[in-house]
Amino acid sequence: MTEFELIAHYFTRPVRRAALGVGDDCALLLPTPGMQLAVSSDMLVAGRHFFADVAPERLGHKALAVNLSDLAACGARPLAFTLALALPCVDPAWLAGFARGLLALADSHGCELVGGDTTRGPLNICITVFGELPAGQALLRSGARPGDDIYASGSLGDARLALLALQGHIALPAEPLARARQRLELPTPRLALGQALRGIASSAVDLSDGLLGDLAHILRASGVGACIDTRATSQLMAESARETSASSALDPELLRQCTLAGGDDYELAFTAPPALRAAVAAAAQASATPVARIGAVQAEPGLRLVDAQGQPVVNRYASFDHFQ
Ligand code: ADP
Ligand code: MG
């Protein structure tokens, strides 16, 4: 199979929203007049972001999901994406599975594959997504203000638990492992929540490297600090670990680590003024996404953790960093 046959067979489909898709030197997009384009890229490298033998369908899903998660964090609606792919060889079964997982998620969000690049090389997937939102309404990292509430969506830590189990560092029973693995390999981008929070959230970030580390991006960009209630964050703990059989076998400190600094969760963390608590609750309900209040923004820089009694908790929860 030639490069062009491969592209034609697996990655070429008629476009409905874009003016021109795969096949020419450029794709042509037609953003809605008055809307701003939101653009983001994420690269997935075999052995670094995923195990080379992961199910290809799941890898296709995840490669797009982590990009859609960035659109979610900005409150954008997905439009289109490009796919740059390095493949060690042409494996039709692998390509069919990869394309199936990728395009199923794309279709479920109306996000069209409009172009890309294909080359031989170590397995590497780079996607660029394009989304749109009303001009000036993007949720940015820089908008948090002292006094704002801090929220996180969904639950945190399953993906890291699955990774630790797959690496052989911890043992998880089959059922919770399958659930945790689903969070690691098939993350759900919180697109509906992100869009529902436009005009409500003062800042937002998606959680790819761990709650505390990603929250620190908001604090730095906004020039503020925060106090986080560890009793509230313990309620976010990985679903897979809630089952008594699993949690009783796991070190509570490890569970805290996974919840606060696990990474690969693809939930949203955001801030909003206390006057908008009802609006946040309505956005959570409208998007069918659980949201929990976990702390408050403060003027004093830095991130402080407190327990149920308001006593300080030592913060030794470093987030994931590819270069450390
Ligand atoms: P060029 O050499 O002009 O950059 P290519 O020959 O690399 O173009 O690609 C031919 C067409 O196929 C282009 O429209 C490109 O966007 C598209 N394409 C290449 N690889 C992929 C891919 N993995 N997924 C989707 N479209 C792709
Ligand atoms: Mg060209």
Automatic annotation (TrEMBL):
Sequence positions that bind ATP: 116-117, 141, 208
Class of the enzyme per the UniProt entry, highest EC level: transferase
Reaction equation(s) it catalyzes: thiamine phosphate + ATP = thiamine diphosphate + ADP
Binding-site residues, Mg(2+) 4: 25, 40, 70
Chain residues that bind Mg(2+) 3: 25, 70, 206
EC number in record: 2.7.4.16
PurM-like N-terminal domain segment(s): 23-132
Residues reported to bind Mg(2+) 1: 41-42, 117
Alphabetized InterPro entries for the sequence: PurM-like_C_dom, PurM-like_C_sf, PurM-like_N, PurM-like_N_sf, ThiL-like
Residues engaged in binding Mg(2+) 5: 209
Pathway linked to the protein: Cofactor biosynthesis; thiamine diphosphate biosynthesis; thiamine diphosphate from thiamine phosphate: step 1/1
Keywords, in A-Z order: ATP-binding, Kinase, Magnesium, Metal-binding, Nucleotide-binding, Thiamine biosynthesis, Transferase
Gene Ontology MF terms in the entry: thiamine-phosphate kinase activity
Gene3D superfamilies according to UniProt: PurM-like C-terminal domain, PurM-like, N-terminal domain
Annotated ranges, domain PurM-like C-terminal: 145-306
ATP-binding keyword on record: yes
Comment field (misc): Reaction mechanism of ThiL seems to utilize a direct, inline transfer of the gamma-phosphate of ATP to TMP rather than a phosphorylated enzyme intermediate.
Protein name, per record: Thiamine-monophosphate kinase
Organism: Verminephrobacter aporrectodeae subsp. tuberculatae
